[in-house]
C-alpha cells in the first residue's frame, strides 16, 4: 500500500469516526430543542448540497455537474439514506441513545453475511465471527438491563435496523459501481435528492411544522451545528465507504460510538444503568477487534488497502 493510499484511508476513517461520534448526540440535542425531526432533516440535507455546490461554483472544491445519469443512479441511494436517517431520528425521540447504539452494534452480524452473499466478500474468520457473536450477546444483555424500556422506541429502532442493513449494502454497491469526479459529487447528489424527498415528506405529513414550530436561540444554534456537521459526515461517510467493506464501515461506526456514550452520560439524565453500559462496552470492544474479511480470491492485505474505486481524476470545478 502506498503512503498516499494509507493517508487517504486514515483520513477517511478518522474523519468519519469523529463526525459519527458527535452526530448522534447532536441530533438528539437538536430534536430535543426542536421537536420537528422532518424539518431538521430537510434543513440538514438542503444546507449540505447548497454549501457543497456553492463551494464548487467558487472553485474551492470539485463537484460533479448535474447529469441525468447520475441523478438516476443516486435516487435510490438518497431514498435509502433518507429512510435510515428518518428512522434514526424517530427512534431517538422515543428511546435513549444507548438503546439505539446497542442495536447498531448488532448490525455487522447481518451485514457480514450479506457482504458474502451479495458483495463478493469472504465470510468472517474465527476471530471476527467471535467478535460478531459478542456483539449480539452484548445487545441481548443490554435489553435485559435497560430500565427505560419503551415499546414505541424499540419498534422504531427495529425499523431502523432493517433499513440500515439495506442502506449499508446498497450504498456500498453504488459507491463501487458509479463513477464520479470527486467524493463531493456523491455528497451533492445524495443530499440534493434527499432534500426533494424530505421536503415532499414534510409537506405531506407535517405541514403544520412550518407554522407551529417555536424557534429559540438554543434550537437555532443546535440546528446550525447539526447542519454543519452534516456536511462533514456526508463527505467522510462516502470516502470511508469507498475505502472499506460494508461490514468494516459499520464496525468503524460502532467503535466510534464509545465517545458518543461518554458524551451522552454527561449530558442526559435518560441513560442506561451501570450494567447496561457494561453490556454496551462489550459490544463496542468486540467491534473494535473485528477484522475486515477479504474479497473472495484476493489476499487480506489487498482487500484491506484497495484504492478508492470509481473516482475519476480531479477535474475543474463544475459550473
What does this structure look like?
With 319 residues, the chain is an all-alpha fold. The chain contains 12 helices and no strands. It has one domain. It is 76% helix and 0% strand.
Question: Total number of helical segments?
Answer: 12
Number of strands: 0
The quaternary state of the protein chains shown equals single chain
Number of domains: 1
What is the rounded Rg?
19 Å
**Intertermini distance:** 35 Å
Q: From the helix content, strand content and strand pairing, which structural class follows?
A: mainly alpha
Mean pLDDT: 81
Order of helices and strands: HHHHHHHHHHHH
Q: What is the overall silhouette?
A: globular
Content of β-strand: under 5%
Low-confidence stretches: 305-319
Proportion in helices: over 70%
Largest sheet: none
Summarize the structure.
The chain has 319 residues and is mainly α.
Layout of secondary structure:
Blueprint: H1 3-33, H2 37-57, H3 68-94, H4 97-118, H5 126-145, H6 151-177, H7 183-205, H8 209-212, H9 217-243, H10 246-267, H11 274-288, H12 300-304
Helix pairs in contact: 1-9, 1-10, 2-7, 2-9, 3-6, 3-7, 4-5, 4-6, 4-10, 4-11, 5-11, 7-9, 10-11
